[in-house]
Amino acid sequence: MSETLHQQPPASIPEDHGTGPAAETEPVHSEIDPAYFRRVLGNYPTGVAVVTAMHEDEPVGMAVGSFTSVSLNPALVGFFPDASSTTWPRIRQAGAFCVNILGEDHQGLCRLFATRGADKFGSLSWAPGPSGAPVLDDAISWIDCRLERVDEAGDHFLALGRVLDLGARPESAPLIFYRGSYGGYRTQLAS
Q1: What is the per-residue pLDDT across 102-159, written as a single tens digit (0 to 9) for each?
Q2: Cα–Cα distances in angstroms (integers) from residue 42 to residues 13, 45, 109, 151, in the given order
Q3: What is the pLDDT of residues 39-56, one digit of tens each?
Q4: 3-state secondary structure of 59
Q5: Cα(106)–Cα(137) distance, integer angstroms
Q6: What is the spatial distance between Cα 88 and Cα 163, in angstroms, rounded to a whole number?
Q7: What is residue 3's predicted lDDT score, i.e. its pLDDT?
Q8: pTM value?
Q9: Is the peptide bond before 74 cis (omega within 30 degrees of 0)?
Q10: Residue 101 in contact with residue 166, Cβ under 8 Å?
């Protein structure tokens, strides 16, 4: 039985996993190659969201693919902003944020909020949520939060938010990022 657990990887996957040769029974202690790490994790589809806030009476926002539900009671959500982000410090200082879930037709909106220095709100319609953070009119769902906690996580931060209010347009399909490309959700396999 243990023979099946230690089979050679398929030819399409490098045997060294980007870290150099290692015995199959020894734990890997070297660093993981970032390009290989990204390629492997690219097989996991993620939703796409825009996190917004009001900083010194100005709307700010950033695209994220790392949003997640954390807890039902209390209602908590989280996302992982890049430590090198220029927008994240302003969202953090605001102390509140809104997660705007993008729909499958929002690729351009995602690219806008992923661009540094762009006029992100100039042509957008939005309204303030309960925290004051922008709720984008076109978002398929929104989750308004108070920033509860921030922890360092490698080259990112974990931002944890306590949900204040939320809403959705259930007839809309989400934007999905998968293997370096955008797409949408089409077929429900099971309920």
Answers
A1: 999 999 999 999 988 878 999 899 999 999 999 999 999 999 999 999 999 999 999 9
A2: 14, 7, 21, 24
A3: 998 888 888 999 999 999
A4: strand
A5: 12
A6: 19
A7: 34
A8: 0.80
A9: yes
A10: no
Return the structure tokens found at 60: 């700010």
The residue among 130, 110, 1 whose CA lies nearest residue 51 is: 110
Residue-wise DSSP of 88-141 = HHHHHHHTEEEEEEPBTT-HHHHHHHHSTT---STT--EEE-TTS-EEETT-SE
Residue 179 and residue 22: Cα distance in Å, rounded?
A: 27
Structure tokens at 19: 């870290």
Q: To which H or E segment does residue 40 belong?
A: helix 34-41
pLDDT of residue 7: 33
Report the distance separating Cα 136 and Cα 156, nearest Å: 25
| Helix, strand, coil content of the chain in percent (nearest 5) | 15, 40, 50
